[in-house]
Amino acid sequence: EVARLIAHLRVAAKTFRLPGLDSKIKQWGWRQISRHPALACAMIDEGMKLDDIYDLALQTLQLKPRAAMLPGVGAVGTGVLALSKPGLLFVLRTLEDSTSHILLLQVMERWAEFSSVEDQGNSPIREKRVREAFARKCALRFIKRDRGNPNKTALERAIQNSKLFQEREELAASISLLDEGIQFSQKSANQKYIESTSQGNEAANKPARPATAIGLVRSNIPSIRQSISQ
Question: CA quadruple 116, 78, 95, 172: dihedral positive or negative?
């Protein structure tokens, strides 16, 4: 909460041109965020809402991703648990090309298991399922196995043991989607659908349902059906 308050004070100092307050905020940042990296996530998340992300918090996230997102017992700051959904997406996009994907998977698992930033008093079980679905979608988007990483085997093992995929029957299909690095708004179902319709009249009259992952947008099936009939 203190980190979020500092983010608001930082904006106020800029808006009302208060150099004294701005100087104290910078001193606080260098002293506290450098000492307690887990405070960076809260400042980034609040800064996104205010359109003013603290550069020191972002730099700390990039240089010390594990300490910033997965603090140990007794650490000051909640790390990834301070992130809302937009904040989690921002962090994953920032780190996807510079940080171990095993670490990113662990970050998503902890966020799905314990985060309560956006809980609105609804059923805890329902809220947890919503978080797990969102984290699973993030994994399908950001975790890639074919990056020439020497830890590819370890990453595959981490994916298979991940809580995000243990209860899904289509784990193998999900792993293949991870290889593709699929986008949230993209799904290569068109080609699969056309191939299924070419196998016979029955498939053409009753098209197979595309094997989409949670949250991925299905293709425009009516338009495909029309093009095939022509």
Answer: negative
Continuous segment of H or E residues that includes residue 37: none
Q: The tokens 């994916």 sit on which residue?
A: 159
DSSP letter assigned to residue 195: H
Please check whether residue 108 is in contact with residue 81, taking contact to mean a CB–CB distance below 8 angstroms. no
pLDDT (tens digit per residue) in 174-223:
556 665 555 554 444 444 433 444 454 444 454 444 433 334 343 343 44
Residue 134 token pair: 């969102």
Q: How many CA atoms lie within 13 A of 81 on its CB side?
A: 15
Read off the pLDDT of residues 69-95 as tens digits, 9 standing for 90 and up: 999 999 999 999 999 999 999 999 999
Which residue has 């009939």 as its token pair? Answer: 229
Helix axes 40-50, 85-95, angle to 10 degrees: 110
Residue type, 24: K
